[in-house]
Amino acid sequence: MSTATAKKPRLTTSAMIASIASEGQRTIAAPFGKALVTLAEQRPEIVGLTADLAKYTDLHLFGQAYPERFFQMGMAEQLLMAAAGGMAKEGFMPFATTYAVFGTRRAFDFVHQVIAEENLNVKLCCALPGLTTGYGPSHQAAEDLALVRAIPGMTVIDPCDALDIEQAVPAIAAHNGPVYMRLLRGNVPLVLDEYDYKFELGKAKLLRGGNDVLLIASGIMTMRSLEVASALAADQVDVAVLHVPTIKPLDTATILAEASRSGRLVVVAENHTTVGGLGEAVATALLTAGVSPQFRQIALPDAFLDAGALPTLHDRYGISTDAMAKTIKTWLA
């Protein structure tokens, strides 16, 4: 066995559903479930609904704490959305959880017509966003942001880590109207506490400055962008990272202010297809304002993705830390 092979042991099938946390990275278990349990103590109108996925979206913690406010709808996502809309019309604040593919692709018409058209106060919190599972196109929500961004009045959130999720839960509850939030579940990395960060709905946050590259990112790609910035610093490449947890409404003012600085390569990094996500939203904002930096995008391809172990897939599709660093150095050459 070669040295290279010894350093990278063959991944087992279980790695297909492994945590996105790197080895040795700090994590918090079930930040969404814990934050919702805490919030519900003060908000009796909050109810929790799921489509047979309480354990796998961390909503089981809410069900244990408030069994009389927890509703298991079975494997019927369209019913889940319709019931959530009906409960919202009766004055409740439903937090409905499922996997992102089921909450967007399978139940789209019910989200659009039952919830969004009437601007109902439903919070959709959907796990396995983008490429965070290796189970192939049936479970990989590579296009969820494109779908929900297109719904009028829908607020769209893509949190980076456990801190983002903990702070986003009360923030989306305070917002009156439908919200779609991508959900990280299980042992979720903790990153943003090192950057004096506080989640604010509709606001982008500059986490670190840099003169050579501006990385604009959301979700787990913000975590990756911070890792890339540290890695490229060793090569004397100065990388700024702008975290955009709210995809809609987009913080156009902050994005334009940062992208307008001359001499920097602007790269949007997202765990989503190149079609219809943060990259296209930023590009539209820049062109509309007449701002034209050198612009690139790191994202998933417009394709049905492979099944396999997540580390392998992230390398294959260019969203791992190493792959991102190599791509950016190529663009700077």
TrEMBL record:
Key word Transferase present: no
Q: Which residues cross the membrane?
A: none
Entry keywords, A to Z:
Thiamine pyrophosphate
Ranges for domain Transketolase-like pyrimidine-binding come to 26-190
Keyword Transit peptide assigned to the entry: answer is: no
Q: Which residues form a coiled coil?
A: none
Query: What does this protein need as cofactor?
Result: thiamine diphosphate
Q: Which Gene3D superfamilies does this one have?
A: 3.40.50.920, 3.40.50.970
InterPro entries to which the protein is assigned, alphabetical = PDH/Transketolase (IPR051157), THDP-binding (IPR029061), Transketo_C/PFOR_II (IPR009014), Transketolase-like_Pyr-bd (IPR005475), Transketolase_C (IPR033248)
Q: Which family does it belong to?
A: Belongs to the transketolase family.
What is this protein called in UniProt?
Transketolase family protein
